[in-house]
Hints:
Blueprint: E1 3-7, E2 21-38, E3 49-69, H1 72-85, E4 91-97, E5 108-115, H2 132-141, E6 143-144, E7 147-148, H3 149-162, H4 168-187
Antiparallel strand pairs: 1-3, 2-3, 4-5, 6-7
Helix pairs in contact: 2-4, 3-4
GO molecular function, one term: glutathione specific gamma-glutamylcyclotransferase activity
Pfam families: ChaC
Main location: cytoplasm
Amino acid sequence: MVMWVFGYGSLIWKAGFHYDDRLFGFIKGYRRVFYQGSTDHRGTQEYPGRTVTLEAAEREVCWGVAYKISRMEDEQIALTYLEVREKQYDKKAYIDFFTDPMALTPAVSGVMVYIASPDRKLNPNYLGPASIEEIAKQIVRAEGPSGPNRDYLFQLEKALIQYGCEDKHVMGLANEVRRVLSEMELIFS
């Protein structure tokens, strides 16, 4: 039995597990948003970082990478690793993955994806929507064991650009973070 995992955040550039194949493509009916708080990787309890989750959005797509894991042993190791890495994401979904925007049938069905739901009872780290300025300020301030929150954002932007994907939310936020950092540099220089 083959397992497929869809990455739409840091999994795009850093899988952290063995895989047999990797496809760039998209899922339908979702968009990527910086609404999930990170208190374990890119922030702390006092200053949570912001990472991406998926939000249901009719007629939208979210580009990312699907990883194929064929061997049972690799699958078990990957699942154990992902359950720790994605522990602040309270939902798993199995969805269709497409590689061709014109295709009517998916390239792969049943791709597993981790989602942080907006239900604060199940997901206490959900931060939700905010203005781009507010999210940018939070990202600039946050840092956790995996490094500064802005590095996560910039790595995501870079990885998407390398695949030829222009995600307006990610790029707009990255530009706002750069603007805030530039202002701070002027103030402290």
